[in-house]
Amino acid sequence: MFTALALADAVARRELTLDTRLATLLPAAPVPGTGVPITLGHLATHTSGLPRLPPGLLRHALGHRKDPYRDVTTDFLLGALAAARPRSEPGVRIRYSNFGAALLGEALSRHAELPFGQLIAERVTGPLAMPDTAVEPRADHAARKVTGHSRRGRGVPDWHLGAMPGAGALYSTVPDLLTLLRAHLRPDGTALPDALRLVQQPQVRRNRWLQVGLGWFLSPVRSTGHTALWHDGGTGGFASYVALLPAADAGVVVLADTARSVDRVGVRLLSSLAGSAGADP
User: Fold this and answer.
1) Which end of the chain is more exposed for a tag (fewer CB within 10 A), N or C?
2) 148-149 and 250-256 as β-strands: parallel, antiparallel, unpaired?
3) 236 half-sphere exposure, CB direction, 13 A CA radius
4) How far apart are the C-alpha atoms of 64 and 57, rounded to whole Å?
5) 255, burial (CB in 10 Å: exposed 0-12, middle 13-18, buried 19+)
6) Can you tell me the distance from the alpha carbon of 163 to that of 74, in angstroms, rounded to the nearest whole number?
7) Residues in contact with 238: Cβ distance below 8 Å, sequence separation at least 6, in sequence order
8) Residue 243 and residue 178: Cα distance in Å, rounded?
């Protein structure tokens, strides 16, 4: 979501467009056999056709199963891009890709000539007043950072995403993420109004139950008439779920120090809010 919002900000600034070709920023980008180039918009909507993970990553990570991404370098990432063969024509099929999100983060960093963490701080979390959201926690965050746990409840070390921070390297808190959701509900009161509106617009439809915006998924909330924007995620010891109900002026954030999914908890909260708002928003 943050990577896509950084793209939307660059679009709002007229620095880039959703149709900007990935190859203009990362020359290693392959051209599918159909001749349709991969664009930044394809990466942000998971329609690039690229696989979920960089080719060769599983073999690369075998020696570091507790922290599988830690040794992923930029050279490895770009080498994987050069070796990748899109599994479908860009823009046609929704196929979730952490690889694509990581490439989008790398492309945006190169365009801005800033490390990804600094880019997000300057373009997103700083303007939106989110002091506890960062790729690298500050020293004063250390005492408040919880330990992650496996699905069986054992403490596990944090994952470090190496050269793939755009795929989900951010630490955050519930208050900060609620600030992000409030900004989406009232974009005109923020420093990023155009970008916040852009990420919420549906870009691609899979079926009646799923559309994709920039970084967001959009789905109807059963029996309520509401459409929710949502995203979930997780690493080795943590799980997350965020959702937004624009018509109900409501949002949900669930963060947990466990690898067990919290989607069910988030959906229950979301459904309760949607039901309370009425069936005809």
Assistant:
1) C
2) unpaired
3) 16
4) 11
5) middle
6) 5
7) 148, 255, 256, 257, 258, 259
8) 10
Q: Has residue 136 got a pLDDT over 70?
A: yes
- What the block records as the tokens of 281 is 């928003």
Q: Which two tokens mark 130?
A: 């989110």
Helices of type H across the chain: 2-12, 40-44, 57-61, 74-83, 98-112, 116-120, 174-185, 193-200, 263-277
The CA angle 247-127-5, to the nearest 5 degrees, is 60
Order of strands across the sheet that contains 204-207: 204-207, 210-212, 217-221, 226-234, 239-245, 250-256
Q: In angstroms, rounded to a whole number, what is the distance separating the alpha carbons of residues 83 and 91?
A: 20
Cα–Cα distance list, 35 to 16, 90, 204 (Å) = 21, 10, 20
Model-wide pTM > 0.85: yes
Tell me if 134 sits within 8 A of 171, measured CB to CB: yes
Four-residue CA torsion sign, 163, 164, 166, 171 = negative
The amino acid occupying position 280 is D
CA distances from 195 to 72, 114, 201, 244 (A): 30, 19, 10, 16
Lowest mean pLDDT among 46-50, 63-67, 82-86, 205-209: 63-67
